[in-house]
Write a structure and sequence with these properties.
The chain has about 375 residues and is mainly β. The chain has a domain of about 110 residues: YerB-like (YerB-like fold). About 5% of the residues lie in helices and about 30% in strands. It has three helices and 27 strands. The longest helix has 9 residues. The protein is globular, with a radius of gyration of 20 Å. The N and C termini lie far apart (about 55 Å).
């Protein structure tokens, strides 16, 4: 496809104030220059949410509870498949755009080299609301075993030849290297982003269904019923978890609990992880899941794959300042990973976004909860 350059100057003005630990006041994003492929054009349609939330009675007409978060969202999205986008997590790639719009965020070691640098895989149900997400990078075999359990369409830019056999599986739908280039003063590998219109074009060009298909196994999580919460303090195995240190050595990430809003705020490289596409909001989650996972190294370059199809391995479920030990099980690529408490009951998550860390077993002892 012939390349053309399109200059798009969009001053994104998103007003909003977040309260609590580590939150930042909204600020204006810098103008961006987007380079698109072919005759595809992009338009920034970022708007400020002026919805009046002062009403005491909330109507859920025309809405349903998302299978990813249990939050009330438009029922026009009920059958829509999420995307699973590979987002760079090297320090030079920061800031990352659009991550606060993700419903579920996975973090996992991308390579045993370079201090075990990690990469995000972010699941977004309402992907048509994306104005800028990324930057987008290559994929690994582990992601091609995890994304199918959500029936998600994978968004990436290539990958090592170890992914080739996985891409042949009939339940894998993916877009590779078909997104926009944003002029941000960085080298080319840090300039690819999903922007408005990219996904519509990709679905049209490939003919992939935007709706769940025959490989969808149903809702991934169990959530607490309306007006109730999962209170881990009632579990005899619970421990304090208002600060979570993750053992990834390259970016040294951690999560801090804010009791005012009940969310865990994510930081790495010694600073809050904030999203310029959404008013510099800090990445935050209601639920945190940690998986102790074995892995295999393919070669001397550090390429690896996690053994995510496994059972009986340990982990933690963390919410509302508490943590309980869990075990987890996954039987095949398309079947969701399940998490169980010490009594063998599947855990029940609280309504909200979820962070899942797939942690190498030889780093597991470095997990710190306090």
């Amino acid at each position: 496809m012939k390349k053309v350059s399109i200059l798009l100057l969009a001053v994104i003005s998103v007003a909003g104030i977040m309260t609590g630990c580590g939150n930042k006041q909204a600020s204006a994003a810098e103008p961006i220059e987007i380079v698109s492929d072919g005759d595809q054009t992009t338009t920034d349609t970022t708007t400020t949410d002026t919805t009046d939330t002062s009403t005491t009675e909330v109507s859920h007409d025309g809405m349903y509870q998302s299978e990813l978060t249990n939050e009330w969202i438009s029922d026009t999205l009920q059958n829509q498949r999420p995307i699973a986008a590979m987002v760079d997590n090297e320090s030079i790639a920061l800031p990352q755009y659009g991550l606060t719009q993700a419903d579920v965020v996975y973090e996992m070691t991308n390579s045993t080299m370079n201090g075990g640098v990690t990469r995000f895989m972010v699941l977004v149900k309402d992907w048509e609301s994306i104005t800028q997400l990324g930057n987008i990078r290559s994929i690994r075999p582990t992601n091609l075993m995890v994304a199918p359990e959500w029936n998600a369409v994978i968004c990436h830019d290539g990958g090592p030849f170890y992914i080739d056999d996985y891409l042949k599986n009939p339940y894998i739908d993916h877009f590779s290297g078909t997104f926009s280039r944003v002029s941000n003063g960085k080298s080319r590998e840090y300039t690819e982003y999903i922007v408005t219109g990219d996904l519509d074009t990709n679905f049209t060009d490939t003919g992939y269904s935007t709706e769940y298909n025959k490989y969808y196994k149903g809702a991934h999580f169990q959530f607490a019923a309306d007006e109730t919460t999962t209170d881990l303090s009632q579990n005899s195995d619970s421990v304090e978890a208002t600060h979570v240190d993750l053992p990834y050595q390259h970016n040294k990430p951690y999560l801090d609990y804010n009791s005012e809003d009940g969310l865990y705020y994510y930081s790495e490289y010694g600073a809050a992880n904030t999203d310029p596409a959404n008013g510099d909001a800090q990445l935050a989650f209601k639920n945190v899941i940690l998986q102790n996972t074995t892995y295999k190294v393919y070669d001397e370059h550090g390429y690896m794959v996690f053994n995510v199809i496994d059972s009986g391995r340990s982990g933690y479920y963390i919410t509302d300042g508490k943590a309980i030990p869990v075990t987890w099980k996954k039987t095949d690529d398309v079947t969701p990973t399940k998490y169980y408490d010490a009594s063998g009951n599947e855990i029940v998550l609280n309504t909200g976004k979820t962070y899942i860390a797939i942690i190498p077993d030889d780093l597991w002892d470095g997990v710190l909860l306090k």
